[in-house]
């Protein structure tokens, strides 16, 4: 057994350390509150596993050694870090994460609830006690705070003393002893006992051994990732490690690094960083793929790294570079690495070794069943998740497409300070919603790229208005953007014919450019220097789905989840067939190595959900469903946080009514309940939207709590999105809350959020409401 106070002192003295192969701190505030509640109530919170060794082992912040014995924390990092951070008021020396997860925790001596500081609720209420201050000063100084309530003072002091005494709590502790144990053995033990926590990825396991010999390995790799991030490209540690593994071993599996020493790995990493830079120069300079959102097929890059390592570090000439880029584009378009990534990587590593770029092209042609071609029907995808969205951007940048307003070519070197482009719907969404389906409105063939000024000037005008003006000012500008020249196709009633005609033009442009790359017919040109490139500037999203996904991801990142791939193609590992283009995809689970792959797919009718489930993917078709799943996981991990939260929140209209404290407010609540039900019925009858989930919330938690939860959600609800698409934002909870008679039921923050959402999505009454 180990007393908590002793453990904290050992961390301060450097006796207890964290091995380098451990991940950083990933807990969220719900888990912190849940742990503190559990230790306060005396509930079991699990034991600790430490490795006692005097060997030199890579740890966070350096290497353990110096002749003494050290205890390396293998299991319990999140719990120990949380307790240290709350009690000491600062993170431990080995900390790697966001300390806001445990900063500002308060305890209510009346309700015995733990919450993070909220000034509107806690300011002036001395029943809320700063937990860190309590551990610093002890309970006695707080006694004077309750002097005016002697009937409660003893109870409050007992509760504070009980919380303060958690430092005397003893944790079950097991130790692995023996200096003869290797890091690999200890990592294996860690993964076995930590099956319920954050498992190490395959890349982490490979890095564990290397970090034992080269402590700065992770730091060096992260520095390169940060540099690319500043240039507009976001890559993961595992991805960089995969490139380095390709260079060092020519193998796809990370376990091939087992027999690679740090002395061998270090130059391989440096070489792979150079090769990645060479590829990014080519992708941005030759293909115009100059930022992260349009950089498709990133798992093809390790293959290019392997090829360059065998070719002396550089492309032999422009023609060689172009053939490699020809393969790269096709590998991305057809989802070469969307299934069994390591299997296909190894096939391509072997092909590179045998026959270079030609071998790669031949292997891909064989996998595709023939020549690599692009046809009109390949542009039938919709949304920016389509694999052909980056191809459209690439064609815009490299084939002389011109801006409708200025007539300038949309190449970075031609535009000067106007290099950022905006995505433009050729036929505005507002003209199409009443007559066409969502997938047709957001068809790739309805997209083009323009400068910001031109995009603003065109606004929501119909093509039959602005096309003729653009062509008159700048002859040939429409053809440069692959616009069909028949004016009849510019009418809304001929929209589907327009899409069909434009797809043919796009496919021909793609075939011509790809043929140039394959045959080496293009002018040689130079390779652009890697530089901080501007992200493509797209207009503020007026699509609630995009806002939902973005805000959901931000919320999950704050809660310690991994960053997902967005607009990600998912292929069948057996056939290579595309199963979905997911709005968000966590291929290794919400936390790397923990749980099943998670898919957020908002167009279920366009995906093979059954096959995804057969492949053991966790599939969600709405942000609300995914967020609910994550919250349930967090509540379970917190060991009572959900219960604690439930105690501090109103549960139904009756509870809210009691707190309101007047007959007038009771009447207002009843009227609001009737209005909420009326909103449901009108949405069903007038807009054709049966909000069954909304109806269930009304029954479960009451009208007022339903409204509050929807208003305080991190993203607009599914119902809001559905009603927006039907042009009926007047039927949303946001609009109802802003009615003058109901506004007193809500906080200023809730009303502000409601008003902002309605303004953002163009509801005309938002500015005047409330």
From TrEMBL:
InterPro entries: GmrSD_N (IPR004919). Residues 638-664 are annotated as: Disordered. Residues 4-210 form the GmrSD restriction endonucleases N-terminal domain. It holds the Pfam family GmrSD_N. This is DUF262 domain-containing protein.
């Amino acid at each position: 057994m180990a007393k908590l106070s002793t453990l904290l002192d050992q961390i301060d003295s450097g006796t207890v350390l964290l091995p380098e192969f451990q991940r950083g701190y990933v807990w969220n505030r719900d888990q912190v509150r849940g742990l503190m509640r559990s230790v306060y109530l005396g509930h079991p919170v699990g034991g600790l596993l430490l490795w006692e060794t005097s060997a030199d082992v890579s740890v966070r912040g350096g290497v353990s050694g110096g002749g003494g014995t050290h205890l390396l924390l293998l299991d319990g990092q999140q719990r120990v870090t949380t307790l240290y951070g709350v009690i000491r008021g600062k993170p431990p020396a080995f900390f790697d994460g966001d300390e806001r997860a445990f900063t500002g925790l308060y305890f209510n001596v009346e309700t015995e609830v733990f919450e993070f500081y909220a000034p509107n609720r806690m300011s002036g209420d001395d029943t809320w006690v700063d937990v860190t201050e309590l551990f610093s000063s002890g309970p006695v100084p707080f006694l004077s705070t309750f002097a005016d309530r002697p009937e409660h003072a003893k109870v409050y002091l007992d509760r504070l003393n009980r919380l303060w005494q958690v430092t005397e709590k003893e944790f079950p502790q097991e130790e692995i002893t023996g200096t003869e144990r290797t890091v690999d053995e200890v990592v294996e033990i860690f993964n076995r006992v930590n099956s319920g926590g954050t498992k190490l990825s395959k890349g982490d396991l490979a890095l564990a051994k290397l970090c034992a010999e080269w402590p700065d390995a992770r730091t060096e790799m992260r520095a390169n990732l940060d540099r690319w991030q500043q240039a507009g490209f976001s890559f993961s540690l595992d991805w960089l490690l995969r490139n380095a593994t390709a260079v060092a071993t020519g193998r796809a599996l990370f376990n091939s690094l087992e027999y690679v020493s740090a002395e061998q790995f270090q130059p391989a990493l440096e070489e792979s960083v150079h090769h990645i830079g060479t590829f990014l120069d080519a992708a941005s300079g030759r293909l115009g793929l100059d930022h992260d959102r349009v950089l498709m097929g990133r798992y093809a890059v390790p293959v290019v790294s392997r090829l360059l390592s065998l070719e002396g570090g550089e492309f032999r000439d422009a023609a060689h570079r172009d053939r490699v880029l020809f393969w790269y584009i096709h590998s991305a378009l057809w989802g070469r690495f969307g299934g069994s990534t390591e299997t296909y990587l190894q096939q391509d590593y072997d092909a590179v070794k045998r026959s270079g770029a030609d071998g790669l092209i031949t292997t891909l042609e064989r996998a595709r069943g023939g020549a690599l071609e692009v046809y009109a029907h390949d542009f039938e995808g919709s949304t920016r998740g389509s694999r052909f969205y980056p191809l459209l951007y690439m064609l815009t940048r490299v084939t002389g497409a011109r801006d409708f307003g200025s007539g300038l070519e949309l190449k970075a070197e031609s535009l000067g300070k106007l290099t950022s482009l905006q995505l433009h719907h050729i036929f505005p969404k507002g003209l199409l919603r009443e007559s066409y389906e969502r997938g047709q409105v957001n068809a790739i063939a309805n997209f083009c790229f323009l400068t910001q000024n031109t995009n603003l000037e065109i606004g929501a005008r119909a093509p039959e208005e602005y096309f003729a003006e653009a062509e008159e000012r700048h002859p040939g500008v429409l053809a440069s953007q692959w616009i069909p020249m028949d004016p009849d196709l510019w009418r809304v009633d001929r929209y589907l014919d327009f899409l069909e005609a434009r797809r043919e033009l796009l496919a021909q442009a793609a075939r011509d450019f790809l043929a140039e790359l394959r045959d080496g017919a293009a002018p040689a040109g130079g390779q652009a220097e890697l530089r901080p490139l501007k992200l493509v500037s797209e207009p503020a999203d007026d699509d609630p789905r995009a806002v939902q996904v973005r805000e959901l991801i931000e919320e999950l990142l704050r809660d310690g989840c991994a960053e997902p791939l967005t607009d990600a193609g998912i292929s069948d590992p057996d056939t290579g067939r595309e199963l979905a283009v997911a709005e968000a995809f966590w291929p290794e689970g919400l936390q790397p190595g923990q749980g099943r792959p998670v898919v957020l797919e908002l167009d279920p009718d366009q995906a093979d959900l059954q096959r995804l489930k057969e492949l053991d993917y966790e599939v969600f078709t709405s942000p609300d469903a995914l967020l609910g799943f994550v919250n349930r996981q967090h509540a379970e991990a917190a060991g009572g946080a959900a219960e604690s939260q439930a105690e501090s929140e109103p549960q139904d209209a009756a509870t809210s009514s009691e707190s309101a404290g007047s007959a007038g407010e009771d009447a207002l609540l009843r009227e609001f309940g009737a209005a909420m039900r009326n909103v449901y019925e009108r949405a069903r009858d007038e807009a054709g939207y049966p909000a069954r989930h909304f109806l269930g919330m009304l029954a479960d938690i009451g009208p007022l709590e339903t409204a509050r939860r929807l208003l305080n959600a991190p993203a607009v609800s599914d119902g809001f999105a559905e009603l927006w698409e039907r042009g009926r934002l007047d039927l949303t909870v946001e609009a109802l809350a802003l009615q003058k008679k109901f506004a007193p039921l809500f906080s200023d923050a809730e009303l502000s959020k409601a008003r902002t959402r309605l303004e953002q999505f163009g509801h005309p009454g938002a500015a005047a409401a409330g």
